[in-house]
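If you are new to this repository, start here. Below is one unmodified record pulled from the training split, so you can see the exact layout before writing a loader.
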Amino acid sequence: MLRNIHPLLGPDLLHALRALGHGDEIVIADANFPSHSLGPLVVRLDGIDAVTAADAILTHLPLDTFVEDAAFRMEVVGDPAQVPPIAEEFAEVVRRRAGDFAIRSLERFAFYERAKTARLIVATGETRHYGNLILTTGVL
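And here is the target side for that same chain:
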């Protein structure tokens, strides 16, 4: 048994998170995201929404303070200035768990291209549109 590990983080996800190094990226993906076709390792968190998954992961994962942007969300197609409610929830979780990090928006296909180079995709059961977040791993 381990102490102080968030209960949503099972052995597969804990192993994948532990294998991340400084600068590696993790995608927290909604249910519509093409997680399995992009290439990186996929760990599933079916039945868990993306904000809850982000909260659990950021309980243990530091964000990178050596880069200009360490968190990214997907832009709304056709309205890049719009900030969907789930993006505001992501921002609150990032602020509470990781500190004063802004979440930069990326155009949909630019988000997919960046996700292809991630080390890990956590596929959640999130059904809200644009429930996708990329986080850059920092150091302890």
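Two things worth knowing about this chain: The chain has four helices and six strands. The chain has one domain: 21-136.
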